[in-house]
Amino acid sequence: MLMLLDTPSLYFRAFYGVPDSVTAPDGMPVNAVRGLIDMIATLVRAHSPTRMAATMDADWRPAFRVAAIPTYKAHRVAQGDRSARVAQGDEEEVPDTLVPQIPVIEQVLDAVGIARLEAPGFEADDVIGTLTHREDGPVDIVTGDRDLFQLVDDARPVRVLYTARGIRNLQIVDEAFVTGKYGIPGRAYADFATLRGDPSDGLPGVAGVGEKTAASLITRFGSLEAVLAALDAGVTEGFPAGSRTRLSAARDYLSVAPAVVEASSDVPLPAADLALPGKPRDPEALVRLADRYGLDSPLNRLLDALPG
């Protein structure tokens, strides 16, 4: 089974879930580093993946999404001196004590031998979407981001291990979960989210169309494409009161939003060995990292969890 980690989602959760009093010998906070290592160890022990990829945001706010919807993640753009020093693009607002931990996380993943994948101009979601699209067998996606519910597919199966309740209390998201939670077909989450919008990502949705109306439209017509085809054909049956007018007013948004909401499935990725290692790829580097950042205990737990 292939396990795909939405690494930024996980290290943010680790950062806020582990006290910043957890520090390296020199006093540098390593709460996100330690928390992420323990998360991976827990996942490996509980789910026994044979392959794993830690996906990263090479671009947390890709230009193609901003060009389509300028408000996309605009509220997360860092303000002040640090963002002014960014030569190109916008810098994400990240807590100051988390920033120096991200390179350490990358070094740990590399030394252990867990594949770390990213693609210029794309988010981790897009890397996950592409790897999922390429995979023939089962896939587990570990994330705290509902956007990736769009990838669930019982036939494969593709599941989301949703971390909202914590890494030891994961919600298993499959098509039945999506249907039960939102009242929509299990594979229709992206179309539903396009209509409803998502303030956390700066996606406005269709004004006046909330979760219930969006669910009703997708359930009645099956897809956003079918909703719009019925709208253009003058169909009135199946449209909740006032929704035809609201959808017509939002046609410009609806023409570009799907490309923003949907995870890409064709991102150019470098060749990578996704096999979960049985032993560290670079044990000497791992010892140096353990000593430098005080990571002996979490790294030993991770190494004990690895196969072989």
TrEMBL record:
Role played: 5'-3' exonuclease acting preferentially on double-stranded DNA.
Keywords: DNA-binding, Exonuclease, Hydrolase, Nuclease
Pfam families xref list: 5_3_exonuc, 5_3_exonuc_N
Domain 5'-3' exonuclease as annotated: residue spans: 2-277
Top-level taxon of origin: Bacteria
Protein name as catalogued: 5'-3' exonuclease
GO MF annotation, one: exonuclease activity
